[in-house]
Amino acid sequence: MKQLIALISVVLLSMLNQVSLARKINDHNQEKKTENTRYHFGQSSPDGIGKFYMGREISHVMGHLAAGWLERPEREQEERVSLLVEALNLKAGDKIADIGAGTGYIARQIAVLIGSKGIVYGVDVQPEMVKLLTDNMKQYHITNVKGILGKIDDPNLPINSIDLAIMVDVYHEFSHPYEMIRSICKSLKPGGRLVFVEYRLEDPSVPIKRLHKMSELQVLKEASPHPLEWVETIHTLPRQHIIIFKRVR
Ligand SMILES: C[S@@+](CC[C@H](N)C(=O)[O-])C[C@H]1O[C@@H](n2cnc3c(N)ncnc32)[C@H](O)[C@@H]1O
Question: How far apart are CA 75 and CA 115, in angstroms?
Answer without folding.
Answer: 24
